[in-house]
Amino acid sequence: MSYIDGYVLAVPIANRETFIEYAKSVDNIFIEHGAVRVIEAFGDDVPHGEQTDFYKAVQAREDETVAFSWVEWPDKATRDAGMKSMMEVMEENDLFDQEKNPMPFDGARMILGSFQTVVEMNKVTSE
């Protein structure tokens, strides 16, 4: 089964288009290094909870929304090799240099994790 890297970010609403362009450039690198799919989702209907919620998790401010993203890999081995080579490419090209390539969000409040897929269901369509 596939292997997933997941990300939750607080992104200024005013940076929506900048976020999309930034994501496309980084997501292309994921694909070039073995990812099979990358999804970037910008908060649209994200409820505020009483105890916890996405906003609290990333300490989102009033002018920010939550972005939810994931990268799908065919397996953990491909992910590990892909992330290693991807990090080298990003470092070589100064993509981690905030002055040359600023992120349109606060990376310190990003939540990330890697997950083993345990159930996967797909709708089968016939055409």
Short description:
This protein has one domain: 2-Layer Sandwich (Alpha-Beta Plaits), CATH 3.30.70.100. The chain is built from three helices and four strands, in the order E-H-E-H-E-H-E.
CATH topology heading: Alpha-Beta Plaits
Give the overall shape. Answer: globular
> Helix and strand succession?
EHEHEHE
Corresponding CATH architecture:
2-Layer Sandwich
Count of runs of 4 or more consecutive helical residues = 3
Major pleated sheet? 4 strands, antiparallel
Q: Strand arrangement, largest sheet?
A: 2-3-1-4
Written description of the protein model:
The protein has a single domain (3-116), classed as Alpha-Beta Plaits (2-Layer Sandwich), CATH 3.30.70.100. It is built from three helices and four strands. The chain has helices spanning 16-32, 54-57, 76-92, and strands spanning 3-12, 37-42, 64-73, 111-116. A four-stranded antiparallel beta sheet has the order 2-3-1-4. The relative contact order is 0.29. The model has no long low-confidence stretch (mean pLDDT 90).
